[in-house]
Fold this protein.
Amino acid sequence: MPQPFHLAIPVHDLDQARQFYGELLGFEEGRSSEHWIDYNCFGHQLVVHLDEVMQPQAANTSSVDGHGVPIPHFGVVLDMQQWRGLAEHLTKHRVEFVIEPYIRFEGKPGEQATMFFNDPSGNALEFKGFNNMDDLFKK
């Protein structure tokens, strides 16, 4: 497994972040204070930091496969079974997708599933799924 990454992002409300990342996404909470919360994001360290004056903003986009992909965004690459489970879970909980779950490069090298959605503070997330992790960087 690659080395875990550490990513710190701003949120405008820690209670909303706790509900979204902890309850909806099921990320285990680690250390926390009244100003930040650590989460185990599929083995990576995601830290949400309170920025009370932060206002959710519309993301810039880049055209990919005819979709407006939000820039910046972050997420995790999952195996296809995990990805499908997450997509079903988010759909069941009526998460509003920026880009609905779909398959890119179907039947080609690098075939992958992807979906985009925002957290309550407007941070864009992308989760990808691969049948074969060796295809991650295939051209």
In short: Residues 6-50 form a domain with the 2,3-Dihydroxybiphenyl 1,2-Dioxygenase; domain 1 fold (CATH 3.10.180.10). Residues 107 and 131 are 11 Å apart (CA to CA). The mean pLDDT is 93. The longest strand covers residues 97-104.
